[in-house]
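Quick sanity check, mannose-1-phosphate guanylyltransferase:
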Amino acid sequence: MNDAVNTFPVIDKKTIIPVILSGGSGSRLWPVSRKTFPKQFWPLVSEWTLLQETALRAHNAHVAAPYVVCNADHRFIVAEQLREAEIHGAQIVLEPTGRNSAPAIAAAAFLIAKKFPEAVLWIMAADAAIKEEGALLEALQRAVSAAEKGYIATFGVKPNKPETGYGYIQCGTPLNGLKDTFHVERFLEKPSKKQAQELVQDKHNLWNSGMFVAKATTLLAEIKNFVPDVYDAVNTAVTEHTTDMDFIRLAPKSFASAPDISIDYAVAEKTKLAVVIPCDLGWSDIGSWDALWEFSSKDDNGNATYGDVFLDGVKNSYVRSDGIVATVTGVDDLIVVVTEDSVMVSHRNRAQDVKKVVERLKKAKRPEATSHNRVYRPWGFYESLTHGDRFQVKHIAVNPGQKLSLQKHFHRAEHWVVVAGTAIVTRGEEKIMVRENESIYLPLGEIHRLENPGRISLSLIEVQSGSYLGEDDIVRIEDDYARA
């Protein structure tokens, strides 16, 4: 599009700081993605989760350690997944409440600008997928060059089909001195099918990837100019932040007062500094099951599968099982997803409508709408195996070196049977070692704690009995994870 001479400056990559936004619930990917464990924490396109893929993408660019902005409830999931991917030195910033991308980006920009005034931020969502990493790094070089000149650069993905699920960016005039970099003529909302068909016929229209590259100081100046309420609220939330273990906690009251607004509406669509870099990244926001089918490798019949799946006479479908065996016969163009507690079947053309079903489940107050049967905690996880009127049986797994809170219950007694590993159980004034195939009884009202002192995961079966078995029947007396 532009034959201008490329004039990249020499850039210290350690001044480029990735900012990974790990918010949202990804309800169009239900039943895998749910509020308590959304899509960025799942391995959807490789053996790595989408969050890990994003962090590793930045790691492979040899830039600085990332800042990850996430929901406070997800802090230990984020920390563990970064550890698994061997991403060291990350700063995890906790949002006390979700306020959309503009306040999240402002928080990271304030924190970074205080330490590194000349830093360039590489802002990206934790839940997108990219196949062409080399093309991304080349585009990043151009974006950083533009950022160093005071612009806010975004990556425009060259569309390969009419897509109604993405926003678009229209290229304007070339930016002098930088090859294939253009002023943004305008941002376009998600179009109708007819509008999308018209947009892709013009090479100046690109998909909006949602990635931005700009100096922290540039972003903060534009946020202050266009959304001063966001600037003031987040500035106060950062000034009053606290640290919790290795986490940065934004001040709840101040952050909650920030308007709920995206960076696109707040700044990108208003600023005169926006430039766009066209690129072929093999990019997808993995925003629906149909998008995941398109991104995935397929067999000769156009099928993409994951897990324990058997197909016969099936074409152009996506079938996934995260639990029991799934068999599908004699259908075309379907999405079939099986989890431990739910089954979702949809025509591929209606994949966007899964979100409507989730809303109906919420109105019906079904826990499956937002929570999985397996619930992750800082120390490991638990999952319900069966339950009745006055009893419940759970599987509890505790990671090596971790411990539950010192606690008691008013309405239930518990019986623990160790099936793998070794436990140290606090029961009243006693500390008791419980080994594999041994058990211990905890009477109603007894103060107790479970700890894994070993080097392998501790697994036990918990049998609860009592008049009320809800998770809110817990009084924490002492907790290593700063939970109430």
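Posting the structure with no commentary besides this: The first strand starts at residue 16 and ends at 22.
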